[in-house]
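Good morning C.,

I know you're traveling, so I'll keep this short. The sequence:
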Amino acid sequence: MTVGDGPARRRTAVVGWVLVALGLLGAVLALAVALGWVGGGSSDGAPTGPASSGRASSGGSSGGTPSSPDALAGWSVDEAPDAYARRLLAATNEARADEGVAALAWSDCAAQVATGRATALVGAAELEHAPLDDAMATCDVELAAENLSRAAAGPRDVVDAWLGSAGHRANLLDPTLMQVGIGCAREPDGELTCAQVFLG
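The tokens, ready to paste straight into the viewer:
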């Protein structure tokens, strides 16, 4: 399993955008998945992002939260990227609840940004963060952060890997980040690359 080279955060300032870099730069976190490593699958079509809640979102507003499927279930190459993203949301909110932090609300806007980011990283040798200016402008917020992963592992295993990295953990448990969107895209070997975009 690979998590991003360090979580990305952006905050607006009166004079312009200021990059807040958190975490360990260039860090790569490997996790032995207790359920076994799965790989070598093939793509089942074009990658998609999380399913919309059916409520329109504009500006910084959030749509409805997708249903909370079992975050502890393992990983399958046959699972659709959008279904996996919903389980990653459930695992993230379970981790926040364990730490006494309020659950993140789903943002359709952040999910669209996240899906674009995950898709752009398919096939990349390393997971690297892009500036978050587009997320803040598109979703009309002053704070955004991002966690990345590439894995053939269950959502809870991915969240545990993020929690094991100081910067990723800070993003995941930050109470000022109140909305999230998650997008996942399938790699040629069957793994899923996911972007988790937080808004504050």
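Safe travels,
E.
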